[in-house]
Structures are given as structure tokens and as C-alpha cells.
Amino acid sequence: MFESFIAFFEALSRNYKPVDLPENAPTEEALLRLHNAQRNPKYPLKLNPELSKAAQDHAENMHKIRHINHANFVQRVHAVDYQFRRIGENVAAGQKTPHEVMQSWMNSYYHRKNILNRSFVDLGVGRYGDYWCTIFGQPMIINSSIVQS
């Protein structure tokens, strides 16, 4: 049983696909590229400024209290006026580079599930020191051709 546990985690780490990043690439750009490298190319994420604000504010707050958490997640997303059908969040602390945090997330079942979830189309990125937050979103879509007056 112990061998199967180790094999499972080794398989997860083999699934991380590093990509070359420009030197001194901004955190948002670096994490967007790293996330999209892990996903099916038919379902890329795009940066969303509202989600990035919520993620950045949360990264700063986690740094301030020196603790990672998902506290008030839904309220934080509502506070930036992002209307969603589905949302997810990954947080981390201690990693020094985008590659390190991405590998940590890809080695974690639930974080990896968020990254690969093809219903998510928007990404918000926040980093403060070595505290990281990404927020994934599927916006609420209203098809105006269906709405009748």
C-alpha cells in the first residue's frame, strides 16, 4: 500500500510541464503561462482584472497575518463585482518563484483539479512576498438572444 501511495505522488509530479519564462516576467504573466501550459490548449485561461484584484488583496492579507487560508472566499470575489457561475482558489506560502508554486499546486490533488478544470476561463493572480493566491472563474453568462422582453 505504501508503494502505491508513493507511485501516486510521483505520477503527479511528472505531470508538471515547466515552460521557459522571460527573465523578470511579471508574476501575472508568468503564472498565466504556467497555468495554460498545464491545461488542454483548447481551454486556455485569460487574466481577469477583477479576480486579480481579489487575489492580490488576499495575498497581501495572508502575508500580514502570516497564515494561508480560504477565508471569505466567495465574499472576496463578490466584493470585486465578478459575477460567476463557478469559482475556485489556490493559495500557497513559502515558494520563491512561479515555477516553485506551480509545481507545488500540480503535486496537490485539489489544487491540480482547479488548474485543469476546463470550466474555468478566467484567472486572477496575486502575490505578496512568498504568499500566493490564484482565483479561477467561470463568469455568469447571459445570452442576450435568449432574453425576451
Physical arrangement of strands within the biggest beta sheet = 1-3-4-2
- Given helix and strand content, the structural type is alpha+beta
Strand content: 15-25%
| Anisotropy-based shape | globular
Q: Give the beta-strand count.
A: 4
User: What's the oligomerization state?
Assistant: single chain
Topology readout:
Layout: H1 2-14, H2 27-38, E1 46-47, H3 49-65, H4 73-79, E2 84-93, H5 98-106, H6 109-116, E3 122-128, E4 131-139
Parallel strand pairs: 1-3
Antiparallel strand pairs: 2-4, 3-4
Structural account:
The protein has 6 helices and 4 strands; from the N terminus they run ααβααβααββ. By secondary structure, it is an alpha+beta fold. A 4-stranded mixed beta sheet has the order 1-3-4-2. The C terminus is likely disordered. It is globular and about 35 Å long. Helix content is 44%, strand content 19%.
